[in-house]
Amino acid sequence: MPVTERGVALAAGTAPEVVAATAALAEELGYRSFWLNHPGQRDGVAGLEPAAGATSRIDLGVGVVPIHLRPVESVVAVVEEVALPVERLLLGIGTAGPGAYRLAREGAAELRLRLGCRVVMAALSEGACRVAGEVADGVLLNWLTPDHARRSAEWVEHGAAKAGRPRPPLYAYLRVALGAGARERLEAEGARYTGVATYASHFERMGAAPAETAVAADDADAVAGAVAAWDGVVDQVLLRLLPSSGDADAHEELVRAGAPGGRPA
Q1: How far apart are CA 238 and CA 171, in angstroms?
Q2: Is 26 helix (H, G, I), strand (E, B) or coil?
Q3: β partners of residue 240
Q4: Domains and CATH numbers, the chain
Q5: What is the SS3 assignment for 42?
Q6: How much of the chain is in helix, strand and coil states, percent to nearest 5?
Q7: Each residue of 240-249: pLDDT tens digit?
Q8: Among candidates 47, 23, 50, which has minimal Cα distance to 36?
Q9: End-to-end CA, the chain
Q10: The dihedral formed by the CA atoms of 42, 44, 45 and 48, expressed in degrees to the nearest 10
Q11: Which residues pair with residue 2 across a beta bridge?
Q12: What pLDDT digit, counting tens, does each position of 171-195 carry?
């Protein structure tokens, strides 16, 4: 079974010095990408600036900008203002509402043209997976089990085949919490998402609760084993960290626990 590559993902509100330190450690340990989310009130695009300054090789991702709420022009302006390295940028987009798929097609094309970066599309439903396979440079899956990830991969493959192109790389967020309070942190995170209609529908279709898609571990060895279960499922599994605190040490503990090739000393 092929070993799936790994990435690290943080909340966009994480302190800039922690973003920089975590991205640098992820690069040092062999992770292939570093991501921030884009929750609306926090700008994940601008938030990547400290990570870009602290690294030189690792890909930098945003997962994802809701382009039905934020104009493409605004995204382009911020990327240029903070001088993100477009050759390393994985710019995630999401859409919702009437005309969502048309907007995804148009937004992906415009961002690729304007910035020259890879555009990654978020996909929960079968239709979104098919459109992402058709137009995106990568597909970001979220809150799902390995089995549902395999089903989603088939939908992406069908969309890509219909467009006469190879299947784009598949990325999947895997939320990871460690130590005392891990289960509570995970349940709180899941509750925030089940309150959103699109995610509530997603969990219902999948037949799984948020906790069944994530890792709440007592120790670092348990994290390593849970992440290894994703080998061969997607191209890259992204450890979406739910640390015990906002400081760099708590983030480092999780990054080391899920490190590619095993936890370093």
Answers
A1: 7
A2: helix
A3: 9, 175
A4: 5-257 (3.20.20.30)
A5: coil
A6: 45, 20, 35
A7: 999 999 999 9
A8: 47
A9: 26
A10: 120
A11: none
A12: 999 999 999 999 999 999 999 999 9
